[in-house]
Structures are given as C-alpha cells and as structure tokens.
Design goal:
Strand order of the largest sheet: 3-2-1-4-5-6-11
Order of helices and strands: EHEHEHEHHEHEEHEEEHEEHEHH
CATH architecture of the domain at 7-183 and 220-247 and 284-298: 3-Layer(aba) Sandwich
Strand content: 15-25%
CATH class of the domain at 7-183 and 220-247 and 284-298: Alpha Beta
Helix content: 40-55%
Oligomer: single chain
Structural class: alpha/beta
Largest sheet: 7 strands, parallel
Length: 328
C-alpha cells in the first residue's frame, strides 16, 4: 500500500521519533493526524511540529492514548496507525510503574481496539530492545527469550503481546518494531547523548551511571524512520516482531569521550553507581529487517553524533536568545 494520499495517524506524533515520522509522511503526500497529549515528561514538543500546523494535510489532536473514545474518533477513516506514543525512560518508569502500565499497555490496547473497530489496514507498534533484558547471547535476534528487567521493559513487552494476540485472533495486520537506542535531533533531554552534551558543552564532566563498559547499539533517527515506513508498506511484516538497530555496539564511556572531544574538552567522565533495571549490552541482529523490509541502516555513530550535537548547540543557543529577550 502506497502512502500517497493515504490517511495516517501518528500517536505521539509531536515526540522525538513521531515528529520525524510526520515530516517524512507529509513529504510522501500522506494526510497526517497527530495525537499527542504534550504531557510534562519533557517540554518543547510543540516546536517539533510547529512547521506543519498550517498544512492542509496535517491535523493535531491534543489527547492521550489512554482515552479510548478519542482514539476511536482519531482512527475513523485512517489507513495506517503508527503507534509511537508511550511512556519512555527506564529510570522514570521505575519510579512511576503504574503510569508506565497505563500509557504503554492500556494505551496500546486502546489503539488496537480502535483500529479493529474502524477497520484500519495496518498498525505499526514502536517497541523497544529493552524487552530482551539480560540476554543469553549476542547479537540479539528476535527469536531469543525476552526477560524484562524494568517496569518500562515489561510494559513494552506486554503491549507487544497484545499486538501479536490481535494479529492472531483478529487477523489484524500489525507489526512490532524493536527500536535500539534511537538518537538524533529532537531527542529527549534525558537521553544519554544529550546528558553528556549538557555537561561537556559547559566544560563539566559527563556522568556515567555504572563503570562505562555497558554498550548500546545506537541507531540514528533517519534510519529508524525509514524502517518504520517500510514496515507499513510490506505485507511480509504482518504479525512480525522485527529488530531495528544499526548492528554495532559502542561502550558508553567511548560515547562520553566522543562528546567531550567534539567540545574540545580534556575532562574525564564521572562514574556513579548504576541503577536497577539497566542492562550490560545491546547489539542488534538486523538481518530480519534487511530481509523482510529491504532495509539497511546508513548513518554511522560518528556521523550521526555530529548532526545531533550541532542540533543541540543550535537549540541551546536559541533557548539562551529567548531567555535574553524575555529579561530585557
């Protein structure tokens, strides 16, 4: 199914991944509805979609996926739902497990029920590599057992299971994408690269929770968006769980030093005690995405990090300008 002139709904469409997805969908000629509740988990999301508000092919609904009646209205006449809304943040969800469940599990069930009622042709669910927990071997492939080690991961896996149950029971075309450590412009301020940049740009020591040897498979936002769009177009993805990751692991202390080098700092990272729910490694086996979706990642961490930090600096300077204008 082509996306030109198709009606699509992006839940969480003002967020990090969702807003980049909206950009591409509008470029492809889709009619896009964004549903986002703009909660106070982090601010600034309005700016992510401000450039679309006057487009005749763009509509914004300020609401939560936990509101079923609104979800039912939002999915009316929709061809594809990209379900990107969710309560993110492992440490945040450890402190707020009930909210994680309500948004990630109940919210996803609402999306599925509404999509079923409105006969939506395809649902793409944004899952997470965190569902693997501490795996038995690497690289991580979709057939490995899942063992969530945090409320966040447990809620994402529970939502996955609902998606697969709807695919099996109701023959609903649903695809679950397990994203691996997505980074890039518009990322959440609590993400590790921005946390490092916040310190390094002020000539302070970036903070690492743990000994720095933990690894992540960092995947640039444009690669994640391309995989997500391809999943909506490929029937072969129906009823499937698919990893979306670059396929290379990088130590966290190396990332911190890359950020320090970018800012010309000779500081060393500060190591602090790790937190419960963290996991030691992620490394994606993305062969299924390559085969089923015809996808391949293109942006290396070295290149993506430069783009991300340039955006961070621009946004930071803009924020300073705004504060100055207000106080003058």
């Amino acid at each position: 199914m082509e996306l030109v002139n198709k009606s699509v709904l992006v839940t969480g469409g003002a967020g990090f991944i969702g807003s980049h997805l909206v950009d591409q969908l509008l470029l492809l000629g889709s009619k896009v509805t964004v549903l986002d509740n703009f909660d106070n988990f982090y601010v600034g999301k309005e700016r992510n979609i401000a450039h679309h508000v006057n487009s005749p092919r763009f509509r914004l609904i300020r609401a939560s996926v936990t509101d079923f009646d609104t979800m039912l209205d939002a999915t009316d006449g929709v061809d594809v739902v990209f379900h990107e809304a969710g309560q993110a943040g492992v440490r945040y969800c450890i402190k707020h497990p009930q909210k994680a469940h309500e948004v990630n599990v109940t919210g996803t069930l609402n999306v599925l029920l509404a999509a079923k009622r409105q006969r939506v042709k395809k649902v793409i669910y944004a899952s997470s590599s965190s569902v693997y927990g501490t795996p038995v071997r690497f690289p991580l492939e979709e057939s490995l057992p899942t063992n969530p080690t945090s409320p966040y991961a447990a809620s994402k896996l529970a939502a996955e299971k609902y998606c697969l149950a709807f695919a099996e029971t109701y023959k609903m075309p649903v695809t679950c994408l397990r994203y691996f450590s997505v980074y890039g412009p518009r990322g959440r301020p609590d993400q590790v690269i921005f946390a490092f940049a916040d310190k390094a740009s002020n000539n302070e020591r970036p903070v690492i929770y743990g000994d720095g040897s933990q690894t992540r498979d960092f995947t640039f936002i444009s690669d994640v968006v391309s995989a997500t769009l391809l999943a909506s177009l490929r029937e072969e993805s129906n009823g499937q769980v698919i990893n979306v990751g670059f396929g290379k692991e990088t130590r966290i202390d190396k990332v911190a030093r890359m950020v320090l080098e970018y800012y010309g700092s000779n500081k060393e990272p500060e190591l602090r005690e790790g937190y419960d729910g963290d996991f030691p490694r992620t490394l994606c086996n993305n062969s299924k995405a390559r085969t089923l979706l015809g996808w391949q990642p293109k942006v290396s961490l070295e290149d993506g990090l430069k783009v991300t930090l340039r955006w961070y600096d621009e946004r930071k300077n803009q924020a300073v300008d705004v504060r100055k204008a207000v106080t003058e």
